[in-house]
């Protein structure tokens, strides 16, 4: 279980996240909704420590996430894989290499620099791509793929980290409806079959309703709704 206790993050005069308290059990699929600037992205970044809290606590089981440093912090970051609206692949590198970079944090720096990967690591990455229906693109440059294909590769890159939690920051905001559905179906499949907790920021309520077990609504840094999709339907 991931527990946020009165988590606050300020940027100067702006309170991006204000006293957020949440318990997220393992295996849940959570959608965070709210307008641009509501604090959704900051909340996700707090969870994997891309951003540090100003106040409050984050714990996962017995681990005090906000206190992690060095190697333990790197291990936590690989426990929480993240995907982004703009996919963040390295366009001129091939798809397989992009996926393999998901494991770079575990490698000695010289191997990461030289991009020397073992056959086992390659096989693992191909399996992750195959699961997303993307194995046939392994040797293509990432920049030659469509947006929906790039996001599936980004999910494969997240999977090779063997995460416990997958954080998705507006994963479908740049995609057309068909690709949005393919990507959301893939996230739900990962959640259901692998039991990985999925926490995704979404800009449309309909998508959250359709895919998530639980919806968290944010407004001006505060959590203003936390419940199941059916509850949201009756209240709004
Ligand atoms: P979103 O699409 O989630 O609203 P933004 O465009 O607000 O994202 O932010 C993109 C990036 O810029 C993020 O890394 C965010 O932390 C950073 N950022 C957002 N607002 C500011 C700001 N006022 N000053 C500096 N950086 C910002
Ligand atoms: P959302 O993801 O819901 O669009 P964000 O978490 O990106 O919201 O932003 C929440 C608020 O915090 C916004 O007012 C944004 O400008 C501000 N903010 C986010 N990141 C930064 C940053 N790095 N520096 C300054 N302000 C930021």
TrEMBL record:
Domain ABC transporter: start-end pairs: 2-236
A single MF term (Gene Ontology): ATP binding
GO cellular component: membrane
Record carries keyword Membrane: yes
Keywords (A to Z) from UniProt: ATP-binding, Cell inner membrane, Cell membrane, Membrane, Nucleotide-binding, Translocase, Transport
Source superkingdom: Bacteria
SMART domains in the cross-refs: AAA
UniProt keyword annotation of Transport present: yes
Database matches in SUPFAM superfamilies: P-loop containing nucleoside triphosphate hydrolases (SSF52540)
InterPro entries in the record: AAA+_ATPase, ABC_transporter-like_ATP-bd, ABC_transporter-like_CS, ABC_transpr_PhnC, MetN_ABC_transporter-like, P-loop_NTPase
NCBIfam families tied to this protein: ABC_phnC (TIGR02315)
Protein name (Swiss-Prot/TrEMBL): Phosphonate ABC transporter ATP-binding protein
Organism whose genome encodes this protein: Roseicyclus persicicus
Gene: phnC
């Amino acid at each position: 279980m991931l527990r946020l206790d009165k988590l606050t993050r300020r940027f100067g005069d702006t309170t991006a996240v204000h006293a957020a308290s949440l318990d997220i059990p393992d295996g849940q699929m959570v959608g965070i909704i709210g307008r641009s600037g509501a604090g959704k992205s900051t909340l996700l970044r707090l969870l994997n420590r891309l951003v540090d809290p100003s106040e409050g606590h984050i714990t996962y089981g017995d681990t005090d996430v906000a206190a992690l440093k060095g190697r333990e912090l790197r291990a936590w970051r690989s426990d929480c894989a993240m995907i982004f609206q703009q996919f963040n692949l390295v366009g001129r590198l091939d798809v397989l290499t992009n996926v393999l970079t998901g494991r770079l944090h575990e490698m000695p720096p010289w191997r990461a620099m030289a991009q020397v990967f073992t056959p086992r690591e390659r096989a693992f990455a191909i399996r992750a791509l195959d699961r997303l229906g993307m194995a046939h693109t392994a040797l293509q440059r990432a920049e030659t793929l469509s947006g929906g294909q790039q996001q599936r590769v980004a999910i494969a890159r997240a999977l090779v980290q063997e995460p416990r939690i997958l954080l998705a920051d507006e994963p479908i905001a740049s995609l057309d409806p068909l690709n949005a559905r393919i990507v959301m179906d893939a996230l739900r499949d990962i959640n259901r079959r692998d039991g990985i907790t999925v926490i995704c920021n979404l800009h449309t309520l309909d998508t959250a309703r359709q895919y998530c077990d639980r919806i968290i609504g944010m407004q001006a840094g505060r959590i203003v709704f936390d419940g199941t999709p059916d509850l949201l339907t009756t209240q709004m």
